[in-house]
Amino acid sequence: MNRWRMVLTRLYFLLLLIFSQPRWLFFFLGLPLVILGLAQRVWAAGTIEKKKSLCTSGPYAICRHPLYFGTFLSGLGFTTIAGALPIFYTAFLLLFLAFYFPVMKQEEKDLAVAFPEPWKDYIQHTPLFLPSSLPYSPTTHAGFRFRLFLQNKEWEGVLLSVLLLLLLLLFLFTGVTPLTFIKGE
């Protein structure tokens, strides 16, 4: 499942680039979503020590899957910046529902086994996906650590996102997109 999720996500963004029709209005509407999504992912990746303990601090205090919530926000932002056709929004939502929610459910089963008592309390106070305005508080985690951000390889996603943004900006400034180039316009 994880392999298909990565392949189809990359294919989605490749097709999004090919069929992009960016406009400045779309750029300014989508950019805040991309920034918020990436910031959420960076914060979450710099907070969690995967498989060592149940992380309930930082972004994990407001939702159980902040990495995926950040992915959702930034993906929606990139779809908007690209000036995507409505079919791309539908495809993005279907991809997310088909691949990310089952992964979340499997991760939750694994965490329930690994950390049974703290997990029961945590899930009663923390929403699955959409952040809560009332953070879960019984924690002693150290907060954001750059070492964890690097260790969790989140820098790869940030780098790819910056490259995607630069490509879309190039399309905006030049008026040339892959589709207009193929058509010879």
Draw up the topology in text:
Elements: H1 2-18, H2 24-45, H3 66-81, H4 86-114, H5 116-125, H6 146-151, H7 154-174, H8 178-183
Helix pairs in contact: 1-4, 2-3, 2-7, 3-4, 4-5
Overview of this protein structure:
- With 185 residues, this protein is mainly α.
- The protein is 69% helix and 0% strand.
- It has 8 helices and no strands.
- It has helices at 2-18, 24-45, 66-81, 86-114, 116-125, 146-151, 154-174, 178-183.
- Helix 1 (2-18) runs antiparallel to helix 4.
- The radius of gyration is 18 Å and the shape is elongated.
Largest sheet: none
Question: Gyration radius, to the nearest Å?
Answer: 18 Å
- Run of helices and strands: HHHHHHHH
Residue share in helices? 55-70%
- Which regions contain 5 or more consecutive residues with pLDDT less than 50? none
What class would the helix/strand composition place it in?
Answer: mainly alpha
Number of strands: 0
Mean pLDDT across every amino acid position: 89
Quickly count the helices: 8
- Seen as an oligomer or otherwise, the chain set is single chain
Query: Which range does the strand content fall in?
Result: under 5%
The backbone outline, from C-alpha atoms, is: elongated
Distance between the termini: 40 Å
Which properties best describe this structure?
single chain, 185 residues, mainly alpha, 0% strand
